[in-house]
Amino acid sequence: MNVTPRLRGAARLMFGNPVSLVYLALVLAAALFAVVDLAFVQHADASFSGVWVALLTAPTVFPLWLAGDALWGEAGSPQWYLVLTLAVAALVNAFLLGLVHRALRGRPGTRGAVVSGGWHTQRHGEH
Questions:
Q1: Cis omega before residue 63 (within 30°)?
Q2: Rounded distance between C-alpha atoms, residue 66 and residue 43, angstroms
Q3: Which helix (H) or strand (E) holds 47?
């Protein structure tokens, strides 16, 4: 079993289409906004800037967070786990968006063909 073509195909679905790239750019922008807000802006109360990252990675991030709660119990998930799950959820969502984009785009060879009465008019002319 050769793993390299599978990894290459998964990477192409995650990073090789405009839909996934725009999604990942939005997640990255929200994460950078949350980090800058946390590091440089003083708040009297808690900031909700991190909520945007969670909303953008939903619904994939929620089962991962629940798994973390099950693993660590009352102590709660460590901070590194929460950040890691956001990254994993963003990549899973980008992969799924890549699958949807590929499915909606269709096969490249059939784009110009028009089916009329069972014949492809592109190859056989009008009838």
A1: no
A2: 29
A3: none
Tens digits of residue pLDDT in 30-89: 999 999 998 898 887 778 888 999 999 999 999 999 999 899 988 888 999 999 999 999
Return the SS3 of 116.
strand
**Rounded to 10 degrees, what is the CA torsion of 86, 54, 61, 5?**
-50
Q: Are 9 and 31 in contact (CB under 8 A)?
A: no
Residues pairing with 116 in the sheet:
119
Task: Please tell me what DSSP assigns to residue 118.
Answer: T
Straight-line distance from the first to the last Cα atom of the chain, in angstroms, rounded to the nearest whole number: 48
Task: Report the distance separating Cα 5 and Cα 27, nearest Å.
Answer: 27
Say what the pTM is. Answer: 0.76
| Rg of the chain on CA atoms, in Å | 22
d(CA 46, CA 44): 7
